[in-house]
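Record type: ASSEMBLY
Status: queued
Input:
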Amino acid sequence: MFHMYLPIAGNSVNIFLIFGLGGFVGLLSGIFGVGGGFLMTPLLMMFGIPPTVAAATDSNQIVGASTSGTLAHWRLGNVDFKMGFMLLIGGILGGTLGVEVIKILRAMGNADFLINITYVLMLGGVGIYMFIDSVQGLRGSNAPAKKTTTPKKESTYAKILNALPMQTHFEKSGVRISLVLPLVFGTLVGVLAAIMGVGGGFIMVPVMVYMLRMPMHVVVGTSLFQILFTCVNVTIMQSYSNHTVDFVLALLLLLGSTIGAQVGTKISKKLKADQLKILLASLVLLVCVKMLTSILMRPEIMVAIKGGH
Amino acid sequence: MNKKILFHISFLAGLLALLASSCLAADISIKLEPTVIHISTFYNGSSVKLSGTIPAKAEAFIRLSGLDREIHLKKKGKVAGILWMNTGDVVFKDVPDTYMLLTSIGLKDEIDSPKSSLGFAALERQITIEPADNNKSFLFKEFVKLQRKNHVYLTDDNAVQYSTAANGMRTFAAVATIPPKMKPGTYTIEVFAVENGTVTGTATKTLTLEETGFPKQLANLAFNHSLLYGIMAVLIALVAGLITGVLFKGKGGVH
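Status: finished
Output:
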């Protein structure tokens, strides 16, 4: 009665279950500015969707969720379009480069090993750093007496940033950095995202916070804006080349996720930047632990269908 | 003289026995209801009633299989002594998408016995693996585990019911559950009459699963007009996102 048949995925799903799943991932997307691909794809696979279809369909639903999220953040004045475009250009370059890198790695035979190690190191490193940083931030804000206005010593990283050419003011983010920087980081994230087979939102967000030093609320909006474009591209490419986008499934997920993204945006506005960071750090670390467990424990079944992440 | 008569009698008896057995074999039958399953918008799997006749002393072993294809798999193994990950690709050829074995308790062992000509052992002999230097038996067992987990390889050793025998024959009945994951296409359903471990006869019918209505139109669009399908999927997602965004603003939720 409450099931619907998905002609591309070749399976039927419970309408409310998929709606709820979309809502949950959309909520996270709205709060943190991540696409949620790294959560949605494994969850869909758990409900019997083939890996390739799960990954491609997820991109389709992220188009809707990030449109809704970007719109909400844009109204709040949280989208830095200039920065977003620079990161996007870098992301496209990096994505193209990443696909070539993965081809070479596959030919060399150690691709999966490298992908897994990259995943664990990236997630672990980013998660731990963010976690410690936000805990320190929360402690600092809880003890206002300790707050001093003494300027910090300029770090080596800051010195390098200031020395780079094409310094530009990014009004929305309130930072003055070189145009080269978002391009380079966009490319790097693009390469990693292509290697890992994900949208890259959960790497892009920490990069914007720590490397580009953007305020957290602008980061979330800008990240969603950038993800929107990436996923439009992936959806069309996957539909055209691999026929793996299940539109019915995407639409069901969308109904949940667009609403979830709106609610998430409201929650995000109510939380402090450090609270947001600590929650995202916990989420990233959780995925890292899951990944680590899966490569340290003997799998229940020693073969898997090829495709997906 | 007596010897000659005796020879003729035994020859005739043998001939009658042979005729009788071939007649019985010819009487083995299987009937499906329905023979075509329509996959429509709210389809969530179905079931097929199977019935027919077999010799009274035999038991029925029913096999549903179909859509043989190539399946690309990733092998998992240990890397650097501690990490479990993909260690290579392997291709299974002539593998059915669905493999369902239904029987009664008496033929339970036929399902997994390595000597069986009907169960998984028969399937293992049918398929080929590339590269050939892989441990076929191990990989096949793991593959069956995977397919069982996905509910496309099913076994039930208590699925077949029998009626009381009449005229040396008895009827059997079973219900095959068709999981929603079974792809559209034509499947073969065979019944084997097994007596004392030997197959004495068989009968075959086909079952068709076909998409109708919305699923059919959507699949046609996705496979035959894929670019249009991709653009449409993106546009609808964009519009849905915008509408939700506007609706939320209307309620005064977002400032």
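Annotation: The CA atoms of residues 32 and 156 of chain A lie 29 Å apart.
Annotation: The first helix of chain A runs from residue 15 to 32.
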